[in-house]
Design brief:
heterodimer, A: Rna Polymerase Sigma Factor, Chain: A, Arc Repressor Mutant, subunit A, B: alpha+beta, 4-stranded antiparallel sheet, 5 helices, transmembrane helix (chain B)
Amino acid sequence: MSINSDLDDVKLVESFKGGDKSSFDVLVVKYQNKVINLCFRFLGNYDDACDCAQDVFVKVFESLSKFRGDSKFSTWLYAVTVNFCRNRISSFKHRKSKQDTSYEIQDAGDESLSPSKQFERKELNNKIQKAIDSLDEDQKSVLILRDIEGLSYEEIVDITGIKLGTVKSRIARAREELKEKLKGLI
Amino acid sequence: MDDKEYKNLLNNLKKVDAPPDFLAKVHERLEKRSKLREMINGLFVPVRLNIPMGLASSAVVAALVFLVVYNIQIEKGFDVMNKDYSKGFVAANKQEQNKKIAKTKLLPAEKNRTENSILDQERLKKNKTSIPSSSIEPKKELKSDFLSEGKKEADAGAALSMEMLDVFEIKAYIEKAGGTVISFEKIFGTVIYPKQLEADIPVAKWDDFLNKAKTFRSVKSILEKESSNTDFRRVLIEFK
């Protein structure tokens, strides 16, 4: 995330607090893909991810006036998203062990690739997602934030509230485990 | 799998895009939430009264303590009553049983008497030297044994319940005679089981009242108290 982008976020948040509700729409449009992707990595289902992302933005709308700006808006948004996803996962577990989760991504595919390549890629994606899903909940969170979303360790500390050392060790263990699982799959 | 391969795999993961109507759906949800919130807020209309919180909370605590103590006392009162009533019922049942037993035991004696009377008649017919049937009495001590035992218990049981009725009868009598019941001391805060009664009795009715009051079993003592009113005499009745 660039400094300009962060400054933009501060301005947008301030103008929202000042009563300009349209600045919230700008924030939604700016972050919707990031939030949906994060949700999708956690939940493994596109529809659930969209639903969860909507809940996240509703929560953001309601709590934005209380946002003090101690951290970056994006970090705060990620923290809200991770919490929502984790809650949703625990309610999934409560309902059923995820009713044979579909890893289908509703997209038109990469048209530059041949149909067989597209299919192969889709299969690979599904396998990786399955492997991520099979990780322990704590390991999964830090691994997604670090290796898929590309956040810094400090940001992950802010989002999860875990100590830096713990974050690093969890990521290392998660990587080892994921590599092991992918070895068998790919 | 080396780190490079691992990173490549994760970096090449397909990114998903938000649906085109995502923002509209978020707004839809926000609208629903605001409507719901309005409804909930409507239920809790703020009361604009300045109530001193300390005073209000101590009043609430006092009311709660009073309610708890009052309920405990009432429960105790009912426990005592239940015990007494159950004693009465047990005794009454025993009396019934004893009556039945006495009747059954008396049967042979009654039979004897009947037989005797028949014999008497026959003997009278023959030579007029028969023993009078009256001399062959049934075993009265047997009958009286059972009856007295049953009666004792029945009396004890009935007395307990009658005592309570006596109290109200005395009260009614005083009021009918033009007297005034001043205090009606209650045990355990209930009028069902009074202990003392203080009343003003018209002078003209005083003797009648004393005679009447003495007949009640439940009256333990009758004391005359000083009264400034010359038309009335004050009395304190203690119940057992």
